[in-house]
Amino acid sequence: MNIVAQPAPSTLIVDLRRTYVSRYGAPMISQVAVEVFQLRYFTKCMSCTFCNDWCCSHGVDIDLDNVQRLLANRDALENWLKIPSKDWFTDEEPDKHPDYPGGACMRTNTRNGRCIFLNPKGRGCQLHAYALEKGLDYHDFKPVLSALFPLTFDDGTLHVMEEVEDRSLVCLGEGLTLYRGVRAELEYYFGPSFVEELDEVEAAHAPR
Ligand code: SF4
Question: Which uninterrupted H or E stretch holds 14?
Fold first, then answer.
């Protein structure tokens, strides 16, 4: 894949007209970093032939409400994943933060340098695949930060993940902008008026 030189992204943070609250009650977003409309990545993850799910190498933060939803499906998930629930998360103390539904997050475990929920024989997130196979909404199983990758949020600001900041994300360069890549997910979590306002910010700062 040939890396396309990208214009230096803006470091500008734009205030939104109001605070948008996730359908889960947290996080709440009232600002956006303009570079989400400027940087590009491969986007079509399941047809990527060079990344081998690189972004799933480190595990992911998962909010306590999401953890409870997985544990509520423990028997079925253990049977389908063939992974005992005792191995699903690291044994670190939950990290308290109001950005997370349930008021804190845990961390998914890794195995052989890959998230424990990553398909060991193929591609993609097994929590996502399980939900699809069972006709369930994958958002109830897959961590919010996995669905919004390569975007994240902190203290009210929607911005890029650290793997984008340090340019270690192997699929940066070509494809849709980071915003356009996850616009549908942002609309799922924060509603249509949120992406309508982000479209305006996009039009003002990164004309398509
Ligand atoms: S975001 Fe990039 S590294 Fe991650 S699965 Fe998609 S194409 Fe691969």
Answer: strand 13-21
Residue 77, exposed/middle/buried by CB under 10 A (0-12, 13-18, 19+)? buried
Q: Tell me the whole-structure pTM to 2 decimals.
A: 0.93
- The residues, ordered by sequence, that sit 6+ positions from 21 with a Cβ below 8 Å of its Cβ are 28, 190
* Position in ligand 1 atom list of the atom nearest CA 56: 4
The alpha carbon of 17 and the centre of ligand 1 are apart by a number of angstroms equal to 32
Q: Which two tokens stand for residue 2?
A: 């040939």
Q: Tell me: the pLDDT tens digits for 45-65?
A: 999 999 999 999 999 999 999
pLDDT at position 207 over 80 = no
Question: Two tokens at 176?
Answer: 């849709």
What pLDDT is attached to residue 144? Answer: 98
Give yes or no for residue 176 CB within 6 A of ligand 1.
no
